[in-house]
Amino acid sequence: MWKTALALLVTIIVIPILAFTMDEPLTGLQHGILIKLLIVYLAAALLCFVVSTITGNYSQVDKLWSLIPIAYVWIVTVQSGFELRLALMALLVTAWGFRLSYNFSRRGGYSWKFWTGEEDYRWAVVKAKPEFAAKWRWLVFNLLFISFYQMGLILLFTLPAVRSMDGLPLGWADYLLAALIIALIVVETVADQQQWNYHKEKKKVQAAGGELPDKYKKGFVHTGLWGLVRHPNYAAEQAIWIVFYFFSVAATGIWLNWSVMGAILLVLLFWGSSSLSESISKGKYPDYAEYLKRVPRFIPFRF
Hints:
- By secondary structure, the protein is mainly alpha-helical.
- Helices cover about 70% and strands about 0% of the residues.
- It has one domain (about 1-295).
- Helix 1 (about 1-20) runs antiparallel to helix 12 (about 260-285).
């Protein structure tokens, strides 16, 4: 786990440096907006670290994952004078954020005591690893990776909004990208609902003391979109922000610009996150190993 975290920390430093050297320098307005976003990021990351350390609940970043991108993109939109492309991007991010917040909320992620709520089960597994036996190591991990890295990643994958400022006029490419994001939000919604329905029905049958049908004996959702790929919700989430990046391409006419770094790092994070989830599921469910062999991870075909 240390090696993975270290590799991600290196990438979040190296990739932005490389990205900024490949593209045109920031304008004065973009630079000023970026400073404002960085201030919000640092405050949010520090808040997550302090609250998680005091309460022992390490899902504080999860509570902001679907909310703070809305704030970032609307800050850029307002500062731009409500450019049409940025207003469209902000509305799409708002729709994405509200849907994800709803799904997180119904799983018990939010509480009127904002520091409480359901914690991601994976943090307890990671914390129990031998390399975190010393408390100071977990403290450093929480500071650098859970709090500052993850919150920094959220900022990075919203930066195509900054790069899209003062761009070319809104065109057919923007409408196509908007349609793709809406379609991907629908896919993510369906995937989350299928997972929700599966576990809700499984718990209902178990609570009634009845015999579990074969579908639920496996213990994990494996039909519908989950029969095509192992993580359809993760796949859609990554695709949403990759498509979001292409708004900056439509705005600038430059296929590879510095705002691509957020999408790249997000893909790396989800690869590591899904691997951790799968290692846990493989230990819990006897049929999961066969599922791993049969069903692709993110893309519904094998190379």
